[in-house]
Write a structure and sequence with these properties.
The protein has 355 residues and is of the alpha/beta class. It contains 15 helices and twelve strands. The protein has a five-stranded mixed β-sheet, with no helix packed on it. It has a three-stranded parallel β-sheet with strand order 6-7-11, covered by helices on one side. Strand 6, helix 11 and strand 7 form a beta-alpha-beta unit. Helix 3 packs antiparallel against helix 4 and helix 11 crosses helix 14. The protein is globular, with a radius of gyration of 22 Å.
């Protein structure tokens, strides 16, 4: 849409009618669907083309045909990413990741491996909670961390079905044992060194209390999804959250050196460096700004993603390398700090916020 078309449809402040509802719960509804990760990217193109085709050819039956189109799109996604497709080696996604994994992923650096070991050596409990099923998780983790990947974590939770892991009550989200990548019987108590499936954050907290010997351990949850890893753990569990947002590095950052203390306390990566190839994919003039926009009067308008990030994440970094390069006791400014509404970006603010 052109700028003129956007203003004509959404008004001078560019406010979508479901904005207030979405920023309050940030989950799918019968009115809209969130496309916010790389799994979803083909769906954005697919649905856009389907809508264009229906608007061109549906005549006066667009509404009914749009509803059917959406059901078909959801069925297609469920078929493409259904868990059993990994073992069966079927579909358009899993075979590619299995056959040529390093086209789609990078090995973890020695810094990250060292950092994970240091966390555990310092008495921190380190857990992995992923919505991926156990066989797919094992495949990815072996390629990224190595065959000993389980040794980096105190407990592993697969098929956690976030955000339900956080938002649904424990009686509806029991843990299950995992044997040979198959989910087994219900489990009431978790143990260190084991892997489980599904579950809920409340039962996990019982184990974390045992592992840390603290009645109310402080939990920091790190992930790359606003919908699954940032909004729900903050809202339902009141955990501290770190958002991984690689778009920061692709766009470029400008470091505020007053935030991070002496040079020895700052990440040793250059915040002004970015990969041009990544930038071509991650930063596009076709889509609007990710965090803020401007109304026709010139005032700043915070986007849905900008609002969720600022209200749900404590800090935001381009990738784990920035955390692994810092001492474990490093003190970060957060989005809640009064110094700046965007003080949680590390090691620097995206350049778009400096305009």
């Amino acid at each position: 849409m052109t700028e003129e078309e956007i203003v004509a449809t959404y008004g001078e402040e560019k406010q979508w009618k479901h904005f207030a509802e979405l920023k309050g719960k940030f989950e799918n509804s019968d009115k809209y669907h969130l496309y916010e990760n790389y799994f979803d990217m083909p769906g954005i193109v697919l649905c856009a083309r389907m809508v264009d085709n229906l608007e061109k050819n549906a005549g006066g039956k667009q509404k009914s045909k749009m509803c059917k189109m959406w059901r078909d799109a959801i069925d297609a996604f469920n078929n493409a990413y259904k868990p059993e497709a990994f073992a069966a080696h079927t579909g358009g996604y899993f075979p590619g990741v299995k056959d040529e994994p390093y086209l789609y992923m990078h090995k973890c650096s020695e810094d990250i491996r060292r950092w994970l070991k240091e966390l555990r050596a310092a008495g921190k409990a380190v857990f992995l909670a992923t919505s991926s099923c156990s066989d797919y998780c094992d495949h990815i983790a072996r390629k990224v961390l190595g065959d000993d990947w389980k040794d980096y974590f105190d407990v592993i939770v697969t098929n956690s079905k976030k955000p339900g892991f956080f938002s649904e009550p424990p009686n509806r989200r029991p843990f299950y044992s995992v044997v040979d990548f198959q989910e087994g019987t219900k489990v009431k108590e978790l143990e260190r060194g084991k892997g489980y499936a599904q579950g809920n954050w409340q039962t996990l907290m019982i184990l974390l209390r045992q592992l840390t010997n603290k009645e109310e351990p402080k939990v920091v949850y790190i992930g790359d999804s606003l919908r699954s890893d940032t909004f729900p753990p903050k809202k339902f569990a009141n955990w501290s959250t770190v958002l991984i947002c690689e778009e920061m590095e692709a766009e470029g950052m400008e470091e505020d050196r007053t935030q991070n203390g002496p040079a020895s306390k700052r990440a040793r990566h250059s915040e002004n460096d970015y990969d041009p190839a990544s930038r071509a994919i991650l930063v596009s003039d076709l889509w609007g700004p990710f965090l803020t926009d401007r109304s026709t009067s010139g005032s700043e308008v915070v986007t849905v993603c900008g609002h969720i990030l600022r209200s749900s994440a404590d800090i935001c970094v381009p990738h784990l390398e920035y955390l692994a390069a810092l001492p474990l006791d490093h003190k970060f400014t957060t989005f809640k700090d009064s110094s700046s509404e965007w003080a949680g970006f590390h090691p620097g603010k995206p350049r778009s916020l400096r305009k």
